[in-house]
Amino acid sequence: MASSRSPLPPTEIADRLRARFGDDVVSFEDRFGHAVVTVTTERYREIVRFLRDERDLAFDYFDFLGGVDRRDAGIEVVTHLASTVHNHSVRVKVVADAQEPRVPTISDLYPGANWHEREAWELFGVDFEGHPHLVKLLLPEPFEGHPLRKDFELMTRVAKPWPGEAEGEEAEEE
């Protein structure tokens, strides 16, 4: 089925978001013909719902959600949405606190976000508030830490005693 409407230019998407949400749209970029907006954590969920429900926007397709560790600047959660009706897309970014990253869930708005949020929780430590079932997907249950955080200590860089090294009484006899 062909789209009866043409895609909105990225600047028009940003203008509509700013008209509705004002300063909660922190920044906007046109990246190769795609709208990229950074929004406040407090309004993230509401903005995503607006993008989905607004008829002229109609972002009906959840593409992906991922994380980027910006060190002290926080954990950036990146959500990509597309409209199958209008053939346009938007990337929504929200920056969570570096020490205790929290972002509202959108898994009830887009069921496809469920596993993506679980993965971002597991690998970056982002707590998706209101998520129905944050449990590990990739790592074993006893695994500690968040391996995609820049402060995660890689096991290959941890000094470990050599397995054949003498210990205890054996070491004293030498």
In short:
The chain is of the alpha/beta class and 174 residues long. The chain has helices at 10-21, 44-53, 113-124, 168-173, and strands at residues 25-31, 34-39, 61-69, 75-82, 89-96, 102-104, 127-129. The radius of gyration is 22 Å and the shape is elongated.
Report on this model:
This protein has about 170 residues and is α/β, with parallel strands linked by helices. Helix content is about 25%, strand content about 25%. The chain contains four helices and seven strands. The protein has helices at about 10-20, 45-55, 115-125, 170-174; strands at about 25-30, 35-40, 60-70, 75-80, 90-95, 100-105, 125-130. The protein has a five-stranded mixed beta sheet with strand order 1-2-5-4-3, covered by helices on one side. A two-stranded parallel ribbon has the order 6-7.
Helices and strands, in order, run as HEEHEEEEHEH
Tally of strands: 7
Low-confidence stretches: none
* Adjacency order of strands in the biggest sheet: 1-2-5-4-3
Radius of gyration: 22 Å
- What is the number of helical segments per DSSP (H or I, 4+ residues)? 4
The helix/strand class is alpha/beta
